Structure formats: C-alpha cells, structure tokens
C-alpha cells in the first residue's frame, strides 16, 4: 500500500480533544480516502472496499456542505483547498488545516 498522503497522521493528544469537530472528521475522512484509493489501485476487484470508499466520499461531501453553511465559506473554496493540498502533496496537520479554513472564512468576497 502506498503511504504518501498529504495530511499527516494526528498524534493521540490532538486526536482525543478534537475528535468530534467537523473539521477533524473531514480531515480523517480525507486520510481514509487517500488510503483506500491507493489500496484500490493495487486491488482492482475489491468491491467491498470500493463501496466503503463511496460511502466515505458521501459523508465527506455532506460534511463539507455543512461546514460551508456553518462557516460561510463556499463549498467550492473548501474543495479547491483540499484539491490544492492534494496536488502539491503538502503535508498538513490538523491545526494547520483548521487555520486554512479560518483564513478562508476571514477572506473578503
């Protein structure tokens, strides 16, 4: 399995205090999506994992929509942020991810 995701694994201390926040859930779903995608590239006929990937994509999509309503940041901007981090293969931890979302929220339109 390929292990070059753009978001690093969170330490246990951060994990315990932020586990229920929407940002943390999006963050962890993005990690799972990256791992499952690399798994499915190796095992093309693993349909159960493919189904799980589709479910996680749906959950992340709903959470991104909720976060865009909650923070008044456009869904497209959030999606572009995640895509940009993925393209540049930038390693970001949870705190940096939350700061990037806060910057998008403060950005004038």
UniProtKB/TrEMBL annotation:
<dbReference type="Pfam" id="PF00312">
    <property type="entry name" value="Ribosomal_S15"/>
</dbReference>
<dbReference type="GO" id="GO:0005840">
    <property type="term" value="C:ribosome"/>
</dbReference>
<dbReference type="InterPro" id="IPR009068">
    <property type="entry name" value="uS15_NS1_RNA-bd_sf"/>
</dbReference>
<keyword id="KW-0150">Chloroplast</keyword>
<dbReference type="GO" id="GO:1990904">
    <property type="term" value="C:ribonucleoprotein complex"/>
</dbReference>
<dbReference type="InterPro" id="IPR000589">
    <property type="entry name" value="Ribosomal_uS15"/>
</dbReference>
<dbReference type="InterPro" id="IPR005290">
    <property type="entry name" value="Ribosomal_uS15_bac-type"/>
</dbReference>
<dbReference type="GO" id="GO:0003735">
    <property type="term" value="F:structural constituent of ribosome"/>
</dbReference>
<comment type="similarity">
    <text>Belongs to the universal ribosomal protein uS15 family.</text>
</comment>
<feature type="coiled-coil region">
    <location>
        <begin position="68"/>
        <end position="107"/>
    </location>
</feature>
<keyword id="KW-0689">Ribosomal protein</keyword>
<keyword id="KW-0175">Coiled coil</keyword>
<comment type="subunit">
    <text>Part of the 30S ribosomal subunit.</text>
</comment>
<keyword id="KW-0687">Ribonucleoprotein</keyword>
<protein>
    <recommendedName>
        <fullName>Small ribosomal subunit protein uS15c</fullName>
    </recommendedName>
</protein>
<keyword id="KW-0934">Plastid</keyword>
<dbReference type="GO" id="GO:0009507">
    <property type="term" value="C:chloroplast"/>
</dbReference>
<dbReference type="GO" id="GO:0006412">
    <property type="term" value="P:translation"/>
</dbReference>
């Amino acid at each position: 399995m390929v292990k070059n995701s753009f978001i690093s694994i969170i330490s246990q201390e951060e994990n315990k205090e932020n586990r229920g926040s929407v940002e943390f859930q999006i963050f962890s779903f993005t990690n799972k999506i990256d791992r499952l995608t690399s798994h499915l590239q190796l095992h093309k006929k693993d349909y159960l994992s493919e189904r799980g990937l589709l479910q996680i994509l749906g959950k992340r999509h709903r959470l991104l929509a909720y976060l865009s309503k909650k923070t008044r940041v456009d869904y497209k901007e959030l999606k572009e942020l995640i895509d940009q981090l993925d393209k540049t293969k930038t390693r970001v931890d949870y705190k940096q991810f939350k700061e990037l979302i806060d910057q998008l929220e403060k950005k004038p339109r």
